[in-house]
Amino acid sequence: MSSGSKPLIKLNSDMQNQTSFSEMLMSKQLLDVSYFNINDNFFVFDDDQLAIIDGGVTLFFQDQTLSLCFNQEVELFNYSTQQAPANFGDLDYYEIEKSNFDFASSVINQKVVDVETHWTWFQELNEDFEPYGEKKDLLQGLTLSFENGEFLRLAVVFYQLSPMGASGFEYDSKGELLVTTNRELEITVSED
Q: What is the reported pLDDT for 137?
């Protein structure tokens, strides 16, 4: 994104995106997951069943790579068919040890049987804060269900942090990435 331009984010529920992601991932075997962070800290909560990171993840399938990660160019989270670090630009990052995400190991080597997505879009704004250019889709949430009955949920969220843990999850492409398996969480949609 050029200096002087800012993203304008609006909600969008796009069935075409849902269909193409379903077609791309259905029946694929998840071979591995890599986790990345840009800042020093990441959080693991609720007896190691939920994590929040700020770089992203890369999912490795039989013949497909898919990342949900921070994209330095637009300064928002989005999906990519490249590994997450390719989207970080000149930002420093590190790969988080997989042992921090043992809860996600139950979906490795499993085939995808269902795909759910949550989308929004953005459009760049000029110096007068007027939108210009094409609308660009942003993936904010991805839930993959697997043949063993388990699921992996990734969602870009804003949240409240307290001594009790994380709560008040709301979709936000400028937020951080929630990673969990087999955990139903309410994630609200901002009215902005």
A: 86
> How many Cα neighbours within 13 Å face the side chain of 87?
25
Burial of 98 (0-12, 13-18, 19+ CB in 10 A): middle
What's the first-to-final CA gap in the chain, in angstroms? 22
Which two tokens mark 133? 């250019």
Q: What is the rounded distance in angstroms from the CA atom of residue 29 to the CA atom of residue 49? A: 22
pTM of the entire predicted model: 0.87
Note the pLDDT tens digit of each residue in 122-132: 888 889 888 88
Residue 13 has pLDDT above 70, yes or no: no
d(CA 83, CA 71): 11
Q: For residue 23, give the amino acid letter.
A: E
Backbone φ and ψ for 166, nearest 5 degrees, come out as -105, 145
CA-nearest of 19, 44, 25 to 145 is 25
Instruction: Tell me the pLDDT band of 11, cut-offs 50, 70 and 90.
Output: very low
CA–CA gap between residue 6 and residue 19 (Å, rounded) = 29
Q: In what order do the strands lie in the sheet with 30-37?
A: 76-80, 65-71, 56-61, 30-37, 94-96
Supply the pLDDT for residue 89. 93
